[in-house]
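question for whoever is on the cluster today: can someone run the full assembly for these? two chains, 1150 residues total. i dont have access anymore since they changed the login thing
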Amino acid sequence: MLRMSTLLLRTLRDDPADAEVASHRLLVRAGYVRRISAGIYSWLPLGYLTYRNIERVVREEMDAAGFQEVHFPALLPRDPYEQTNRWSEYGPDLFRLKDRKGNDFLLGPTHEEMFTLMVKGEYSSYKDLPLSIYQIQTKYRDEPRPRSGIIRGREFVMKDSYSFDIDDAGLEISYQKHRDAYVKTFKRLGLDFNIVSAMSGAMGGSKSEEFLAPCPTGEDTYVLCEKCGFAANVEAMITKVDAYAGQTPPAVEVFDSPNTPTIDSLVELYNGLFSEPITAANTLKNVLVMVDGVATSILVPGDREVDLKRLGANLPGAQDIRIFEEEDFAKFPGLVKGYIGPQDAAAQGIKVYADPRIVIGSHWITGANAKDKHARFVTHGRDFTVEAFVEAVEVKAGDLCPTCATPVVIDRAIEIGHIFQLGRKYAQALGLTVLDQNGKSQVVTMGSYGIGVSRAVAAIAEQTHDEIGLNWPREIAPADIHLVAAGKDDSIFEFANTLATDLESAGMRVLFDDRRDASPGVKFKDAELIGIPYIVVVGKSLQDGEIEFRVRKSGEKSQIPSGSAVATIVAAIAG
Amino acid sequence: MLRMSTLLLRTLRDDPADAEVASHRLLVRAGYVRRISAGIYSWLPLGYLTYRNIERVVREEMDAAGFQEVHFPALLPRDPYEQTNRWSEYGPDLFRLKDRKGNDFLLGPTHEEMFTLMVKGEYSSYKDLPLSIYQIQTKYRDEPRPRSGIIRGREFVMKDSYSFDIDDAGLEISYQKHRDAYVKTFKRLGLDFNIVSAMSGAMGGSKSEEFLAPCPTGEDTYVLCEKCGFAANVEAMITKVDAYAGQTPPAVEVFDSPNTPTIDSLVELYNGLFSEPITAANTLKNVLVMVDGVATSILVPGDREVDLKRLGANLPGAQDIRIFEEEDFAKFPGLVKGYIGPQDAAAQGIKVYADPRIVIGSHWITGANAKDKHARFVTHGRDFTVEAFVEAVEVKAGDLCPTCATPVVIDRAIEIGHIFQLGRKYAQALGLTVLDQNGKSQVVTMGSYGIGVSRAVAAIAEQTHDEIGLNWPREIAPADIHLVAAGKDDSIFEFANTLATDLESAGMRVLFDDRRDASPGVKFKDAELIGIPYIVVVGKSLQDGEIEFRVRKSGEKSQIPSGSAVATIVAAIAG
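^ ran it for u. tokens below:
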């Protein structure tokens, strides 16, 4: 039993200065967590009980799915991460340190290398597979902007699993098993979530899905079709296009267009010059970027912007993408700023990609590659060609669902899980092979599956809190019942104390507010803030043989006879 | 249920090259742990199950004692450790690193600062105390010589508690509560242990006790009285002495003693010169040391050596102690090497301490502070005085128990717990004060209590293993029953499979060796190595309606009827 008189808990009246999101504000005010440093937190007793409930649910569901629990260190030697090139690739997000002998170590941000090497150390035959192993472990990432409390910390706990299979068909089965286990886990945690496609063209068709918990302050933006349920993160949104169905356009026609520094000014000029009116969507923007040192033009409709993150996710192998700078233009003197068109990009040594809306056969108003000149009827396939289509424009609410063509909405969410067909990258780099039926060595294929365990505390708080406080699902709450002794009479405290003991004997976890020096008002406010699902009040009406039973979530209150309190409460909670 | 056919486990026939102790050899061979780097290990499934059983027992006992669980980060900012001076005092054992902004961090070796600051953040009144809080958490220490596997690692798990009280009487109660909880915990873990006094004079009477698990390969040496049970670590051993009961000695008599470079040669010369024979124990050795830059003479009987570690623990406040070097002698020209006596030490500016055996009134043969001269009848209190007595000589088996005067033995052990009255050091440094009954600010007094949780896996393995393998107490074992299907017939596997399921339904945790490609001999060897307490064999005798039940520890075997196997096994295990 938890007793408020001795519990290490002091609720706060005021919001902490650094709390950007509701969950963090309430977790601090209700005495669940405390900040130690940017992105680094301590857990107070109520917080750690809640955290451990989540950890237990996650572990039970992983075990139920037949995955085996292992545990790796957080302090890891450099060598395996050197072999996969992640020691340097990880950049400044990796915490690096040296031991007393000068050997390089890192604090594990993820453990692909360790999982791969563990299996390599034990297994050697296809008969040993499939295997799925997991750990629940502290991770370290030196986030540039740790924020939102425990949602994005620099030290946090993840459940990370990896599956090992001999072939793609096996991986598909392991992936589905994890997907099913994740659905069960998040349902038990009481989370609302969407499973969102995170498969981008660049990843070559291996499946990748995110579990997103919708929440207005979430850091992740995703696309949702409210009609058919299609959901994708922005990088993985697929543009819905139809083949060009118009007439074959006339030959390219160049026209004078001085003083048209913007798309709007070009549209205005055009609509003055020609009879059929256009909008920005009829013009073609040539966005010049450097992709790993290669000059590249991304063609998008004039009413759209390029989303560099989306572009990066969809250009196979691209590492470093940036917008053209002055010095880049200097290297391509053929480029006439403000009047660029794709017509002779190839001749100038510029690679060209197009947004899927620039369908073959469609014609555009674009630069004529000459000062103060634009051209119309510039037709894809006739007047210019592209390397490939690429999903690169900023996704907007109202874009069409690729599945059912309904306008989509853009929603915000917290990423609570990610499942991913990792493939052979790590097995290849670290030499994880097994012999197949024919005695031939085969590189193992892997899946990678993560749940943010400490983050889930905040995600659940975000989704379940209300204006007066936290509001936990029962399985996650630090107790089932918050029992308040409200009054001054000894008889109230004696009755409440016995009731608390009896409820614990009946299998209920009780937080008993047995404080003598706190007023009923303070106790009620604390109970609402702390968010335990059921509140029982022993107060003045005890003299009439009644106590009060409250449901925290609905606010519903009822008087119950004090003589049969335990049975009535247990029955009410069991529902 | 664990199934050998799918369990991530490959036992090893051969001892690992780096295994110095039995526990580590067996934990590696039986597939419990794997080495990642010096002092850094991964847990395989069986190992992590075992570890988690220990963690559970520790947590249950801490909770039962009313201690509250909290959790701190491992990655900690420098500032609090700067305030207590531990950032630098900790030396090279501390893992230090910088974040991306260049801020200093450390990996927590212990969390005194964090516990103190947490309580300071929440509490302000004597009414809030007493409080005991704990965490089970990963610690980091860059040991100069990590060894013995998980017994002394660089990354390891500790349960660390701290108690907070307003006064010494409160601390005494909190200390005793922890002591009681530790006794219960280690008993449940099946550990043999001694509670050993670690209280040294220098610590000013605050209590400190170690829980030591005797084991021949242990790193800790301690003194044990097999008669009365007195136990102390070597630093805390108390010398048993009687007051001087002889006659008042004659005046000091100087005699020629050329060529007596050793105690033995002095004894030989003396016994030639004088009628009453002596031994080395009648001579007085003047061991010169520098204690934080102060020249100090430690007087000990000639048959004893000075133990610098013991001396350090017993000289209040001493930080740096070293034996005199040539340059130190050069600063004290009055010192005649080989002929030093305490008679005029004070005049020379040398501080003198004496072993308790140099009782007041006793007389000694020692140097006469003149070349080739010794003196006899040199009497403590008459011819020389000392600053204080100090426990500084090497403890030997056969020294007398301070409690019952029986000769003690010297034993080896693994330290599994340590409880310690820490006092006000950290509260003072970090400003943890509360208001007392009179509204006056008081510095809180603290106790510090640790259990090596991951180390306990190895300590239990050390104490319980035998020549054929591990041998776990049931509560700690990764399963209750190791069920072996021994044979080739499908009927054996089918029966065993049903039995495994039925045993699990009856509440038993079963490891089922369902491998089709392993011989009975291999399976039996694995069962012995893995060390689950009960082994059930379903083999050829199944056709006669019998299966075998083995007790791993005693080797006892019995045939039981297959028809009533579940009931018989459950009854046998329940004892």
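summary bc i know u wont read the tokens: The longest helix of chain B spans residues 168-188. The radius of gyration of chain B is 30 Å.
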